[in-house]
Amino acid sequence: MSHRMFLRSLYRLQNLSRSSSNINPKHAVLAAFQPLLQNRPYANTPQPAASASSVNQTELAKFAAIADSWWDVEGPFKPLHIMNPTRLAFIRSTLCRHFGKDPFSAKPFEGLKFVDVGCGGGILSEPLARMGASVTGVDAEEKNIKIARLHADLDPVASSIEYRCTTAENLVEEQMKFDAVIASEVIEHVADPAEFCKSLSALTVSNGATVISTINRSMRAYATAIVAAEYILHWLPKGTHQWSSFLTPEELLLILQRASISVEEMAGFAYDPLTGQWSLSDDIGVNFIAFGVKISQ
Q: Does the structure show a pLDDT above 90 at 82?
């Protein structure tokens, strides 16, 4: 598949979006990229009905299949490894400001309890622990937790992380509370985002912090996060994301408000193909991250 053909498809997509403001984004992208991607499935995988748990078994199976690759920086989780410093920069900045901590300190989160919901192999939990936080990492997939524990044991600091194969809902039933609740690149994979956010809120102490990063349900996100990343550049396994499961920033803000979380700051992630690096941006059209505060009851 040539670079020229890809550019032609992007040009076709641009013309379609200009021709009609009412065009369905998914239909526009499919039409634009059809010559390149004939007979390839997109978001047709049947979704299980939402239940009392936020766990989506179909999504869980996807990540179980590639769990052994969490710490392979050239493997299927390479995009997350590259994005990690940028995620951490936002988390460090917003949480230090909120909790009155020194962002230049080696361990600015000392004395704070964090939970990393949907922690996977621990690629976000470990640096948070190195920054001084008391971290609990939870994931519904046992394979992910095993990998996370094995890798954490290689580092005396990371080995302090409490990894558990469980869900946010189960932690709520245990009446667990944390100063900061983080769910990074998770909400687009759960069965019921609204109920999931209610659980995140229940886990957060009054005036505590909640951080969520995800992908916008936009035409650009479909073109880049799915068509390009999964089917053209092969950065991610095909079928990793379902466009219909993405949330717009407005939807996430409303869901969090209903869960008693006030969103205080939001930023986008911008990818530079020349450097291969991510940076924080005002553009929330594709990848974005939100910081909110639990409203005192």
A: yes
How far apart CA 234 and CA 202 sit, in angstroms, is: 38
SS3 129: helix
| Digit-coded pLDDT (tens) for 19-63 | 544 555 444 444 444 444 443 333 333 333 333 567 888 777 877
Six-digit token string for 117: 């919901």
Q: How far is CA 226 from CA 11, 33, 107, 175, in A?
A: 17, 12, 37, 38
Q: What angle in degrees, to the nearest 10, is found between the helix axes of 25-33 and 3-19? A: 140
Helix, coil or strand: residue 234? coil
Q: How far apart are CA 195 and CA 192, in angstroms?
A: 6
Tokens representing residue 221 in the block: 């996100």
Please give the distance of CA 187 from its chain centroid, rounded to a whole number.
7
CA distance 178 to 281: 28
Task: Round to whole Å and give the CA distance between 189 and 118.
Answer: 10
Q: Chain-centre distance of CA 147, in angstroms? A: 19
DSSP 160: G
Compute the chain's Rg from CA coordinates.
19
Strands in 113-117's sheet, in edge-to-edge order, are 162-165, 134-139, 113-117, 178-184, 204-215, 287-294, 261-272, 277-281
Instruction: List Cβ neighbours of 181 (8 Å cut-off, separation of 6 or more).
Output: 114, 115, 117, 200, 203, 204, 208, 209, 210, 211
pTM of the model: 0.79
